[in-house]
Amino acid sequence: MTNHKIDVNRRRGKGKEKVSKTLVNAEWKAPNGQPPTYFSIVRTYVNIADFEQFFRDQTVDVKPNTPGCGPPSGPKVDKSTKGGRSPGVQVEVLPSPLTRSLTTACVGDSACKDTAGKEMWPVGDPFRSCSCLAHAYDGLTMQDLPEHISVQLKYLLQTSIVKLEPNCTIPQTHNVKFLLYTRDIPDLPIILDPSDPSQINPEKKIVVVVHGWLSTPSFSKIIEMKNAYLKRYDANIIMVDWSESAHQLYEVVYCSVPEVAYLISDFFCRVSDQFNIHLSSIHLIGHSMGGQISGHTGKQVLKQCGMKIGRITGLDPSGLLFEYGPADKRLGESDAEFVDVIHTSGLQLGYYIKCGHVDFHPNCHFYPQPGCMTVNNIRNESLLTDVLCAEDRALELMAESVNSKQLLAVSCSLCPRYCSQDIITEIYQVMGEDCRAIPKPAKNFYIPTNDKYPYGQGCAAYPKWAEFCKNNQK
Fold first, then answer.
1. Statement: residue 131 has pLDDT above 50
2. Where is this region: Disordered (predicted)?
């Protein structure tokens, strides 16, 4: 497929002039009468004149639509302000090679639904296609990735002894955004101003989610976790979008971790100062590389504003280049008042050994996770979500745990090296959201799961100990 180009000029930080509340979605035609092109922008309010100026000088590669993809018709402008969407935030093009490849994905109605079949955007929403395009990440295949990333991902997954060195020589500029979801705006987030996050309600619970390597906040499994939290709590759910830095070679992204964490910690300290709240009330959840970013954030927050984050949950935190490293370079139990970790791809990309106050090892004698493809079967046409199934399983387990207590684990002192539950001194502990205390003396837990949703088996997972299990849940 032939690439076409559109000249754009990214407008950055030219004062805080008042912007009109006009919602813009655009389909642009390439010059010289070439076929129409379409690429995703973050849905937001902008000033029309500024928007036109925005698309001028800088060149960005985009690809033409495949039949039936992209917006259903031409440019549309919605001048309403329904949904509580925040004015005044800048439009951002999805610039990385990975996110830009989303424009080739064909987006139908199914892409606008979660796994339960619930509509994520109203059918009549004129920006339905633009919104669903963000979820086209779920349809990416290995061949949609830049070749050097695809080759590396196969290598990392299929090689038992990986040779990898950090590459911190490439200059990085980190564009981190903070997206706020609430029950009032469950689908269309407010893009917070890090210097003045006034839309946060300090009276409500604050949950912050950091996505991982090669991922995005619009990944459906992250969205499902957000939805689960909003179902249970009337809360502030804040997604940290660092995707522009996340879509590079692993060893390059590794070097971005401290700097991204610094920006998050600066945001946390600002929230604490502005609302006079202690950071012990914050629950920080990090997936994959986001787990390691969360650990570094905890360290930096302690240095920067003299507080500890209340809880960090690591969802299969990255292991390569972090495992067996010094405690100040990786996620550890000193990074928050309580650190719990769910390990689902310890023999692939994840952190294998214990690194929190409480560590859970779902199906630790299975490789990969039940229901996931084996890495030897990776093909060019393999979906990225299938390739990273084991790593992403931690997201699914956490999402399920928010509204279920069936993810019941048993203490396993020898996990993950020997996956055998304790027999005489066993302790049963709910994994996920409701694991909020250190169940001494146990620190490692084993949990068998189903191979698809619902994953939790409750006490039925331990038939020989069913009655004991029911009477001894912590």
1. no
2. 61-87
User: Which residue has tokens 């100062």?
Assistant: 273
**Separation CA 348–CA 345 (nearest Å):** 5
- Segment (H or E) for 250: helix 250-275
Task: Supply the DSSP string of 177-223, one letter for each residue.
Answer: EEEEE-SSSSSS-EE--TT--TTS-TTS-EEEEE--TT--TT-HHHH
Q: Are 284 and 211 in contact (CB under 8 A)?
A: no
Q: Which backbone phi and psi does 139 adopt, to 5 degrees?
A: -100, 5
Tokens in use for 108? 């139908």
For residue 203, count other CB atoms closer than 10 A to its CB: 9
pLDDT at res. 169: 86
Q: Which domains does the chain have, with CATH numbers?
A: 4-139 (no CATH), 148-471 (3.40.50.1820)
Higher pLDDT, 179 or 48: 179
* Pairwise CA distance, residues 329 & 467, whole Å: 43
Asked whether the predicted pLDDT for residue 269 surpasses 90, the reply is: yes
